[in-house]
Amino acid sequence: MYAAAGKWTQRDRPRQAMKERGVKKEPGQSWIEAKGLVHAFFAGDKLHPFSDKIYKAVADLNARAQELGYVEQQYSLRKEGEQGGMEPAQNVHSEKLAIAFGLLSLSEIIPIRVIKNLRVCNDCHNWIKFISKATKRTIVVRDAYRFHHFKDGACSCRDYW
Questions:
Q1: Has residue 38 been placed in a domain?
Q2: Structural domain containing residue 64
Q3: Rounded to whole angstroms, how far apart are CA atoms 26 and 29?
Q4: What is the spatial distance between Cα 142 and Cα 145, in angstroms, rounded to a whole number?
Q5: What pLDDT score was predicted for residue 37?
Q6: Which residue intervals define the domain DYW in the entry (predicted)?
Q7: Stretch 115-134: mean pLDDT, rounded?
Q8: Lowest mean per-residue pLDDT among 24-28, 49-53, 57-61
Q9: Do residues 79 and 8 touch, judged by C-beta distance below 8 A?
Q10: What total number of domains does the chain contain?
Q11: Has residue 9 got a pLDDT over 90?
């Protein structure tokens, strides 16, 4: 909240307290099963053997979503000085990678089912709504709080989560 509001000092206090106490934040991770194998993704992950195809698919999906009216939320949780050397891929959340992989790997009649260990961010939630409409696919995401069933550009949570 503090970072989104540009209140960097307030953002850094709890982080510093966590660091002093040795508390580590759990990284966001998403999983999808395809052809009997579970595939795991982290934000900005390039370890998957098909990462080039997955990132190309994400770029293509972004373009399709934008044609339907999707606008990426441009807020950043990092100060300008902290972003030096960051690749744009590092801003691709794990659920986007998992969904792109699912679209590449699964038959059109199979719903895309993704599990995420943290809450889906607002931007990804909006993106998935547009992707479900653009691809005419059902996408189910289980995040830390609930199931989200995306179909035809809408989510079962009615944007309350």
A1: yes
A2: 26-71+89-155
A3: 9
A4: 8
A5: 97
A6: 90-161
A7: 96
A8: 24-28
A9: yes
A10: 1
A11: no
CA atoms of 27 and 44, how far apart (whole Å): 11
Within a domain: 30: yes
Compute the average pLDDT of residues 44-72.
96
Token output for 95? 């659920």
How crowded is the C-beta side of 103, counted as CA atoms within 13 Å? 23
* Cα–Cα nearest to 94, from 122, 66, 118, 130: 118
CB-based contact 96:127 (threshold 8 Å): yes
Residue 66 above 90 pLDDT?
yes
Are 128 and 95 spatial neighbours (Cβ–Cβ below 8 Å)? yes
Region label for 56, one of left (φ > 0), alpha (ψ between -120 and 50) or beta (otherwise): alpha
Has residue 113 got a pLDDT over 90?
yes
How is residue 138 written in tokens? 């059902």
- The Cα–Cα gap between 13 and 160 comes to 29
Q: Is pLDDT of 82 > 80?
A: no
Written as six digits, the tokens of 140 are 């189910």
Decide the pairing of beta strands 139-142 and 112-116.
parallel
7 assigned to some structural domain: no
Per-chain mean pLDDT for the chain: 89
